[in-house]
Amino acid sequence: MTVRRSTSRHPGMCTASDYDPYKTLGVGRGASQAEIKRAYKNLAREWHPDKNKDPKAEDTFIKISKSYEILSNEERRSNFDRYGQMDESQPFGQSQHHHGFRSFHNSFYFDESFFHFPRSRDFADSKYLLHHAHFNSDVLPDSHKRPYLIKVTSEWCFACIHIEPVWKETVKELEPLGVGIGIVDLGFERRLANQLGAHRAPSIIGLVNGRVTFFHQAVVREHLRQFVEDLLPHKLVERITDDNYLSYLDNWHVENKPSVLLFDQVPIVPLLYKLTAFAFRDYVRFGQVDQGDKHCTRLLRQFNINTYAPTMLLFKEDTEKPVDIIQARGLKKQIMDEFVSNNKFLQVPRLVNQRLFDELCPVKQFHRRRKYCVLLITGEDQAFLPGNKAFVDFASANRKEVLRFAYVYQRQQQPLCQALLSTYTGQCALVVILERRSQAGKVLYRSVSGGWNGSEEDKYRLHEQLELLQKDPTYLSSDATLPELNNEMAPIFIIQWMNAAYEYILQIYDDLLYSNWREMMPILSLIFSALFILFGTVIIQAFSEPGENKPRQPNRPPKKDFVEVTELTDITYTSNLVKLRPGHINVVLVLTNASKNALLRKYAKEVFSFSGTQTLHFSFLNADKHCYWMPSLLRSVSDAAESEGQSDDEEEPSDYAGHVLALNGHKKYFCLFRPVFTGDDPNDSSSETSLSSDSRRKSRSRSSIEVHHKLDRLGLWMERLMEGTLPRLQVPAWPSLDETANRDS
């Protein structure tokens, strides 16, 4: 094809000699990078096609972007300053009249419409654009559930235009299967590009489990599909035949997972099935049966498989009968995901880590329906097997939305069992019904008397107690603070280290083979950081006491086995209340000299599970020393209510011992807990802080309140305090502890 150079110029076209990126951005040749960046941001914001409706906005925006791309790169800027060139491939020091065709090519550099090229930035694909914050908050965590295929592009990248048709075909094929798609603009997201190690466009990157892998083959749809498939871990799907299907299904005891079998006439595992197995690998095991294999005939006959359409069977504890079946010629991602997610737990799973416990038995939310966990504490010996099987049968026959059945091995989860049953010896199995009340590990529970051996009498007794629980939630009469569960499925440390080392070696090999040293620096830095952390951890553990460095959750029980309670005095009053940091609350117990010891012991027991919260402080106020402070505080609330037109003619109590106040010194409000004797009526809820007339009359009507019962419901009140559902009483100012000042006021 012959290209004829025209002597006339298109109005929207500028030659290389006419084009000046400094003039486009409106900066001088001596401008710093900060000035260039500031000018670019202002112009890009003004001329962005989505905001500026001027017909020339898009062309102007592209020129601004290209100008910034040249001037922000010191090497390109130097080339332009010295030779007036914008293409890095042109030899340095050669004038443009020696390269007539290069000058001709550059004369069309900013008007690709002359050749009818599509824009390198397709605004219809804006939903795939990735930004640094979005990538780190959403995409990176999601890469542990599905792989991502990311294209790195830039404005006026002709190679990017060349691969665009193949890219669109690949996206159209892989996105419905569940592969994440992303696009990174090298000119606009340099920070994200540097994080990915992408320094040139076009580049194609695979992301899975937070690990970045570069694509180095020819950009063909088949190669891209195989690249995505190679990103997935090996052995996601196990090949099943007549010889190993029984051991595969029976392995639910060890793996603690349901099992899925895919029957298909294709010997190769479909990519959709691999992606589903990757997404649910922590919950379900996946196997594939080739219907054309002569070694699978017995398997096909046993489950009566239709050979004309793919079939999926899901097994739980019963290995002879699947709990769910789907069969369709065209299995879609949505159907497979729904099929697996509805059956990702066994009928009675074993609690092997804290994550599984949190999913099966979630913490009670005040706006949601209660959920109870029926927990069997049993053993691993053969003597416990009949009782365990009977518990599974009972759970299958009594499935309800509010009930979750699970079991633990006493030997594997000793801290949990000791917290629930301090005198448990492990000689027989026991059933415990519990309800989780807070992330700090607090639960309400009740153990089923008589133990559990799977007899009909045991089943009747458990069914009867579950019926009572449905009618009366206060049936769970005991409370405890549970420790974090041991992770039974965690691999040995040396195996984790070997797997991580293997991944790093593969990454280094890939970088040595294809990449430059600048792209290798993040990997080398990561390796040395990991080695430093490894040896540092070993050294620290060698010189520390056992259990000293055990990680704790933010809301877990505190490091200390006691609660620090300080007394509010003239010295500590200002720092602990008046000038308390914003967001912090001081929980103050009011007591007297006579009730001090009894109330402090009860107070420490009730608030212990909340003492790990960094924003809570615990104090006590001696009413014998500061007898005017409480009346002054309540009187200021009454005066404020009267000024707003609310009348309250109730009398103030004479004894404030056992009152608890949650004081927010910064916002000047408090929540009040009034003690009520709870020994006679467990259903009485009037102790949960209110200044209503009914609760005041009830508290005054109990003339003889036993000291050790005054704080019986403080734990429930603290839960409501953490939920933020307690009424708040505003005060104009905090009263002074000085008795003379309070008496005069």
TrEMBL record:
<dbReference type="InterPro" id="IPR052448">
    <property type="entry name" value="DnaJ_C16_autophagy_reg"/>
</dbReference>
<dbReference type="Pfam" id="PF00226">
    <property type="entry name" value="DnaJ"/>
</dbReference>
<dbReference type="InterPro" id="IPR036869">
    <property type="entry name" value="J_dom_sf"/>
</dbReference>
<dbReference type="Pfam" id="PF00085">
    <property type="entry name" value="Thioredoxin"/>
</dbReference>
<keyword id="KW-0812">Transmembrane</keyword>
<protein>
    <recommendedName>
        <fullName>DnaJ homolog subfamily C member 16</fullName>
    </recommendedName>
</protein>
<keyword id="KW-0325">Glycoprotein</keyword>
<feature type="transmembrane region" description="Helical">
    <location>
        <begin position="523"/>
        <end position="543"/>
    </location>
</feature>
<dbReference type="InterPro" id="IPR036249">
    <property type="entry name" value="Thioredoxin-like_sf"/>
</dbReference>
<keyword id="KW-0072">Autophagy</keyword>
<dbReference type="GO" id="GO:0005789">
    <property type="term" value="C:endoplasmic reticulum membrane"/>
</dbReference>
<dbReference type="InterPro" id="IPR013766">
    <property type="entry name" value="Thioredoxin_domain"/>
</dbReference>
<dbReference type="InterPro" id="IPR001623">
    <property type="entry name" value="DnaJ_domain"/>
</dbReference>
<feature type="domain" description="J">
    <location>
        <begin position="20"/>
        <end position="84"/>
    </location>
</feature>
<feature type="region of interest" description="Disordered">
    <location>
        <begin position="682"/>
        <end position="704"/>
    </location>
</feature>
<keyword id="KW-0472">Membrane</keyword>
<keyword id="KW-1133">Transmembrane helix</keyword>
<dbReference type="InterPro" id="IPR043361">
    <property type="entry name" value="DNAJC16_TRX"/>
</dbReference>
<dbReference type="GO" id="GO:0006914">
    <property type="term" value="P:autophagy"/>
</dbReference>
<comment type="function">
    <text>Plays an important role in regulating the size of autophagosomes during the formation process.</text>
</comment>
<dbReference type="InterPro" id="IPR018253">
    <property type="entry name" value="DnaJ_domain_CS"/>
</dbReference>
